[in-house]
Amino acid sequence: MDWATICTRLQQDANDQAAWDALVVRVRALAYGKLSGRPPDLIEDAVADVCAGVVLDIESARSPQTFKGFVIGKYLNVSKGVLRTVGESRVPLDAAPELAAPGAPESADDLRFVVLDRCLEGLPARDRQAVELRYFSEAKAEQIAQVLRVSEVNARRIVFNGVNRLRKCAQAAVGPLRSDRTG
C-alpha cells in the first residue's frame, strides 16, 4: 500500500487495520534504519508513538500526496524524544567533524541524520516546506507551487535554494557530502 492510499484510508476510517499495518511497517523500517543500535523496545515505543500521533493528527495532513512528509515530520519529533530518553543530545554542528571518525559507520550514519535534521530545522519556513514536499513527499513542482502559492518556476527555485542551503550547512558540519569516485 503506498503512502497516499494509507492516508486516504486512515482519513476515511482511523480503525482501518490494513492501513494501520501498512503505516506501522513503513514507520518501523524508518525507525530501525535511523535508530539502529538503540534498545528494540525503545524503537518499538517510538513506532507506536509516531503511528498514534499520525492517526490522532490525520486532519493536519495536507493531502495524500504530502502524507509521507507528514509522517516523517512526526517521526523526527518522536525520535528527538527517544534520543533524549537514552541520554543523547543534539550534536552541535561545530562538534560534528570530530564525531565522524573513520571506522565508525553507525555513528557516522547517526551523525548525518542529526546534522541533516538540524540543518533542515535551520532553513527558512518556506524553503523547509518546499524541500520536505519535494524529497519527503515526492511532490512535483506543480504541487509545490500550489501549496506555496507561487509559480512553478519559483517553486523550483525555492527547492533549489533550500537544497543548496542544506548542502552548505551539512558541509560546514561534516565536510563534503559526495566522495570523489575516480579510478
Task: Write a structural description.
- It contains nine helices and no strands.
- It has 183 residues and is mainly α.
- Helix 3 crosses helix 4 (67-85), helix 7 packs across helix 9 and helix 8 packs across helix 9.
- The chain is flat.
Keywords:
single chain; 183 residues; mainly alpha; flat
Structural class category: mainly alpha
Give a count of the beta strands, DSSP E runs of length 2 or more: 0
Order of SSEs: HHHHHHHHH
- Poorly predicted segments: 89-107, 177-183
Rg, rounded, reads: 18 Å
β-strand amount: under 5%
How far the N terminus sits from the C terminus, by CA atoms, comes to 41 Å
Oligomeric state, counting identical vs distinct chains: single chain
**What would the average pLDDT be, to the nearest integer?**
75
- Helical residue percent band: over 70%
SSE layout:
Elements: H1 3-12, H2 17-34, H3 40-56, H4 67-85, H5 96-99, H6 105-122, H7 125-136, H8 141-148, H9 152-174
Helix pairs in contact: 1-2, 2-3, 3-4, 4-7, 6-9, 7-9, 8-9
Quick rundown:
This protein is mainly α.
